[in-house]
Amino acid sequence: MSSTYSIIPNFTYPIKQRAIFFTENGGPEVLKYDYIDTPKIDDLKPNELIVKIKYIGVNLIETYFRKGIYKTSFPYVLGREASGQVVIKGEEVLDIDLNDYLVFFKNESFSQYVKLSVNQDKYINVGNACSDDSLKQYTASLLQGLTVLTFVNEAYNVKEGDYILNYAAAGGVGLIFNQVLKLKGAKVIATASTEEKLQLAKKNGADYTVLVNDPDFVSKVKSFTPDNRGCDAVYDSLGKDTFDKSLEIVKRKGTLISYGNATGTVEPLLINRLSAKNIKIARPQLFGYITEKEEFDHYSKELIKLIDEKKLCINIFKTYDLKEYPEATKLMEDRKTTGKLLLKAPE
């Protein structure tokens, strides 16, 4: 039997909801937009609540699950980050009110409703007066903004005057990297696939730009650094196709942060290759840095503060309806988008 819970007056909670999911691995064609069950109210625990989703962040990691790079069970509902309004809450949920908006991490958020636990899930309460524009900015920055803030402080502690190479510099995470690196006083070398994207990167803080497919890519990147010594750190989100170039570009005693698989997974590394220049290498993921509540609270407060103070602007490419996700991911995978893609859940 469920605990006592409260619900928004006159709110009708449905038993079915729309969601994006897949039942086999493959391309965008395996994606389904159909009905699944909503979280059951009768199973709601005293420390749990149900959120009616409004906006959902689109991330490249979803394609890794769909393609089978990361293994899943079927059916698999996509989603990692979202925002929405609290419509039902258990009796022990004291610091969140009905109608409050939360920005949160939660699997299966390519849907209309999710259940959160105040003890286990990570969320930011932005109150019931949050503007729609602010809610979009917070949602569009949660995963990628926290990734950047943790990576520039913990994966490699960026210092003033460092020369940093930033791959995919016009993408959702790349544009945030440009801005945060500049705030830390670094010299930002941006790379992307088109001149148009490079110009966008420059508008967001990049000092130098170079096309990723330039035949002289390595030498051009090095030419931006003092005495052609190479970069203090490289943030490489592309993976397989750029890993060897990144090793060449990192200077002696530099650091290579490999954190994405956009061009495929990196081949196994013979560790002796790091010895020639005493290179450090890391393969971080965000949640290893925000495991504890105080860690998440620290970085999430910093992120919200940067956005509210207009020191960080999140470039939103487009907000799609949830059912349009297959179209959105095709464009993203073909590198035809810049900035962040959002989905809007159906009412």
From TrEMBL:
Keywords: NADP, Oxidoreductase. PROSITE patterns: QOR_ZETA_CRYSTAL (PS01162). The keyword ATP-binding does not apply. InterPro entries: ADH-like_C, ADH-like_N, ER, GroES-like_sf, NAD(P)-bd_dom_sf, QOR-like, Quin_OxRdtase/zeta-crystal_CS. GO terms for biological process: cellular response to oxidative stress. Residues 26-343 form the Enoyl reductase (ER) domain. It comes from the Eukaryota. One of its GO terms (molecular function) is mRNA 3'-UTR AU-rich region binding. GO terms for cellular component: cytosol. This is Probable quinone oxidoreductase. It comes from Hanseniaspora guilliermondii.
